[in-house]
Structure formats: C-alpha cells, structure tokens
Amino acid sequence: MDSSSGIQEPFDLIRLSLSERVFVKLRGDRELTGILHAYDGHMNLILSDVEETILIVDQPEDGSVPKNAINVAKRKMNMLFVRGDGVILVSPPSRA
Amino acid sequence: MLIFSVFKTLTDQTVTVELKNDLSITGVLKSVDQFLNIRLDSIKVLDEARHPHMIAVKNCFIRGSVVRYVQLPAENVDTQLLEDATRREAASQVKR
Amino acid sequence: MDSLIPFTTSGSLVDCVDRKMLVVLRDGRKLQGVLRSYDQFANLVLEDTVERIYHQDVFAELHRGLFLIRGENVVLLGEIDLDQEDEVPLRQVEWSVLEAYHKKEVADRKHRDEAKAQVLFERKGFCKEGGEGDGY
Fold this sequence. Notes:
The complex is a heterotrimer of chains A (96), B (96) and C (136).
Chain A (H helix, E strand, L loop, with lengths): L9 H6 L5 E6 L3 E10 L5 E13 L12 E13 L4 E5 L5
Antiparallel strand pairs in A: 1-2, 1-5, 2-3, 3-4
Chain B lengths: L1 H8 L4 E6 L4 E9 L5 E8 L11 E6 L4 E5 L7 H17 L1
Chain C lengths: L8 H5 L6 E6 L4 E9 L5 E12 L2 E12 L4 E7 L1 H4 L5 E2 L2 H30 L12
Parallel strand pairs in C: 4-6
Antiparallel strand pairs in C: 1-2, 1-5, 2-3, 3-4
C-alpha cells in the first residue's frame, strides 16, 4: 500500500487532514473547529481560525434541571495550541 | 519535540494560557520545557475578581499537564513550516 | 538540547528558590510558603506554609508547616510580589469565621458540576468526569 496516502494507523487520518478544517471534541464540555497545522503523538494540536463551542447547562436555584437546559456559547480564536490529553476525538472534513 | 520547538520559537511573545480549571492568564512566555511546563512573566489574569489569590502574583510557572489551551500570536506562526515539520515528524515515526 | 538551560524545568524555577510563592493545587487549595527545593517533575518543598481560603473580598489563613508536594498535584506556582502584597484590597478574618462559607461554596460548585456532567452525558455524549470536581 502507498504509505503516503493510505490509512494504516490512527494518526494517518490526522496527517491527511493537515491544512484542512477539522472538528475536535474535548473533555470539559467543549468542541472546536479549526484548520489543522500541527500535531504530535500526544495528539497535541495547533489549529488556526478556531471556533470554540462551550456547552452550558442552565441550573436554577432550586436544583431542578429544565428540559431545554443546554445552551451554547461560541468564541473565536486566531491561533490555538490544544493539549492532547483533553482531546476525545478528531474528525476530518467530510469528503464528497 | 515538534510542539516544544514551536513554543521555543515563541519565547518573549505574549500568549494566553487557559487552564483546565478555567483560569486564563496572559503573559510573556519566558520559558518552556519538554513537558510543556510554561513560565509566564508580567501576567494578567482574566476576571481577576473571581481569582483573588492571583492579585499579588506577577510571574508564574504553570505545570504543562493542567493546560487546556494556549492562544498563540498568529502573526508569528508560520503555518506552512508547521505542516511540513509535522509531516516530517510523522514520517520519521513510521520508520521506527 | 540539554545545554539550553532556559528550556528546562530547573531553568525556569531556579530564581524562585527561597522566595515566597503561591502554589495552587488541583483540588483548588491555595498555599503560600517559601520554596526551598524542586525537581524536574515540579515536586516542591514549601516551608512555613499557610493555606488560604477566599470568599468574595475576604480571606483567612491557617498555618500548615513544611510540605513536600508531589508535582502532579500542582497547577501553578506564582511568585508573590511583596510590594504589591500589602496593597491587595482584601480583608483578613479568622479561619473559623470563613471556613463554613468556603466549605459551602466548594460543595455547591461540586453539586453544580455533577448535575451538569450528568445532563451532558445523557444528551450530548460527553464523559462524566466532571463528577470528580475538576477537568484534570
């Protein structure tokens, strides 16, 4: 198999996503999309043009949890290093 | 080693480190080590009122393992160089 | 690489030795003491340590003594600017006065985090580690 294009191990999927927009799900109720520029074996990432989505759960004083309790906050960042230990998954752009 | 090298090139630049406990600290990157422990000088804490223990702190050492993100100065990051270096490092890992 | 002393743990902490430092731990505790020793893992020896608790604009402290802190529990190590320390707009009160407020605040936060983690686990597929009280 051609090792420069084939996917033989998990990190190949990330390598083929370099300079493309990826979706990253993180621990701590956060998700990112951004253009992938670098990664290493710890799954540390460097992304640019990042949009972060933070999930916020409304919690009234009485301790109940309402049905539509989940809100999102969004934040944009130019260039971001993401520490690998917080990464749950990296998803490449969908290809037609 | 790749990400460590990137941080080394950014010494004396201003970065914002966001910790897993939601504390965000902006400061001048003075040093970084192989564990990505970070030394910041002339720090400014975002939302200082919520973190009164940080008021008299000017310089700090942050343990790499507690970092969630580092916001980097985009103008000082060569994304093409990063991608090439990442591909090179990935290729050298495969050969091992 | 090894000759680049600024780019080592020892290179960045060497000038903090024998200074009054703030240490924040992963469980949220704040300690102040004199840094006497450290190593590459950020294991720390802290002398004349006091623990501080904060609530709004008041704080209290309790003498704790001599500690060796295992590095993995360290969040950050801050150099306390002794000139600015006296101008901090906070009021000190007795530990016994503040302790109950502090404990309630910690318990409330833990409860909120657990409830949030449960909701996000059920509806959004996030892991439930929030229940441990921190994201480490």
